[in-house]
Amino acid sequence: MDLKLKQCFIAVDDFDKALAFYCDTLGMEVRNDVGFEGMRWVTVGSPLQPDVEIVLEPPSANPDASPADREVMAQLLAKGMLRGVIFTTADCDALYGRVRESGAEVLQEPTDQPYGVRDCAFRDPAGNMLRFMERAGD
């Protein structure tokens, strides 16, 4: 099988704040910015991985979602209950310092884990959990 990850999706409630975080703080680049049926999707990615993208989307991007479903999604996002992503980095401590200085909510300071990584965790401006890990020996 020839199978590779291309895109993952992260719900955001404020594109300006999300872009400042993902691009200015994390160093990602905007690859696409699309509007459709009153919604917006912005694709970002690391310059180090041109074939992998993160799509920033409204909390309920499905145009068929009911108003009640949209409200539930917005509430889950506000509580930080939607899943985020895990990034790798060559220097967890340096990344931690840069992200902390941005004002992002710290969930975990850099910690050596028993399964062979050093990692830290933050919430993005929308409340999504993001983890950053450095593999031992990298």
TrEMBL record:
<dbReference type="GO" id="GO:0046491">
    <property type="term" value="P:L-methylmalonyl-CoA metabolic process"/>
</dbReference>
<dbReference type="Pfam" id="PF00903">
    <property type="entry name" value="Glyoxalase"/>
</dbReference>
<keyword id="KW-0479">Metal-binding</keyword>
<dbReference type="GO" id="GO:0046872">
    <property type="term" value="F:metal ion binding"/>
</dbReference>
<keyword id="KW-0456">Lyase</keyword>
<dbReference type="InterPro" id="IPR004360">
    <property type="entry name" value="Glyas_Fos-R_dOase_dom"/>
</dbReference>
<feature type="domain" description="VOC">
    <location>
        <begin position="4"/>
        <end position="135"/>
    </location>
</feature>
<protein>
    <submittedName>
        <fullName>Lyase</fullName>
    </submittedName>
</protein>
<dbReference type="InterPro" id="IPR029068">
    <property type="entry name" value="Glyas_Bleomycin-R_OHBP_Dase"/>
</dbReference>
<dbReference type="InterPro" id="IPR037523">
    <property type="entry name" value="VOC_core"/>
</dbReference>
<dbReference type="GO" id="GO:0004493">
    <property type="term" value="F:methylmalonyl-CoA epimerase activity"/>
</dbReference>
<dbReference type="GO" id="GO:0016829">
    <property type="term" value="F:lyase activity"/>
</dbReference>
<dbReference type="InterPro" id="IPR051785">
    <property type="entry name" value="MMCE/EMCE_epimerase"/>
</dbReference>
